[in-house]
Amino acid sequence: MKRMKFGVLWAALVSMLGFTSCLDGGDNSNIQNFNEIMKIDKLTGLYVSQMGYKVNPLNAGDLQGVPSTSGYIQLHYTYDYTQDMSDGEIDATIYGYSTISEGLWMPQAPTEADSGAPVSGVEVTSSDATYFFYKLDDMFLPIEFFVRKGVDTSDLDDREEEMEKHQFTLYYNADEDFTEKGMTLYLRHKLLEVEEDDEFTQLSGGWWHFNIIDAMARYQKKYSKRPDKITISFERNTKDISYDEDVLTEGKVEIDYEKVKELNEAISQGRSLSRLLAR
Q: What CA–CA distance (Å, rounded) separates 36 from 54?
């Protein structure tokens, strides 16, 4: 688990909660500070790490009403590592979060109707590969793109309403884009409910979840193993949402999937909770 390094995107997306006394002073030498994508356990109200432990939010009331269409959330939290964690559960204070939307998946190339706008960027760094996965088949992409003029991205309701009007899809061609070293997935962006007078002049972003188990199954059937790397290819325009040839380029990011496999192997070997948290 690593601290986020995405700068502007992180600052723009995270909703900050009130800071607690553990961050305001006093002896906080035992306090650990983490950012992590976690699965939401709707029955218990707890948040489940891919490493198996559960986070019990001490300020759960601050998270009431937060949308969770994908069943995952990015949490910025602190916890006291001297507490008893033998039962696989930790008490933590949540002081920041980012919602995660659900992406679509197609095992074939999309039609023109499935796409409609480029994106500004996909903020993925290979060195942080394990951060973009929950276990082996659930991938998360932080995507920057243009939203409608006048959207207040600092207002949760306004931002979530806008995010629902942007659809992201991943597709692949196993015969052409799978090699022994890795796989290529193609990201496409579709604008929904566009009015004639809408102006897309404001740069914003969000997190999208994609379950890629189908692509992994196809890859393993072909090569009897998982890939070493995953390449995300996308249509990129950093100026606006047009497809003008002078501004449109092909964007690519590579994820070191070897690191994702190594982390999951360590988890499966039963490394202790305290050692995993100290990564």
A: 12
Instruction: Give 179's contacts (C-beta < 8 A, 6+ positions apart).
Output: none
How many other CB atoms are there within 10 angstroms of residue 139's CB atom? Answer: 24
What secondary structure does DSSP assign to 90-114, as a single string? Answer: EEEEEEEEEEEEEPEEESS---GGG
89: tokens are 């559960």
pLDDT digits (tens, 9 = 90+) for 135-166: 999 999 999 999 999 888 878 788 888 999 99
Q: d(Cα 229, Cα 216) in Å, to the nearest integer? A: 12
Side-chain-facing half-sphere of 144: CA atoms under 13 Å: 21
CB-CB contact of 76 with 97 (8 Å) = yes
pTM for the whole structure: 0.86
pLDDT in tens, 59-83: 888 888 787 788 999 888 989 888 8
Instruction: Decide: 99 and 153 in contact? Cβ < 8 Å.
Output: no
Q: In the block, which residue shows the tokens 């909660």?
A: 17
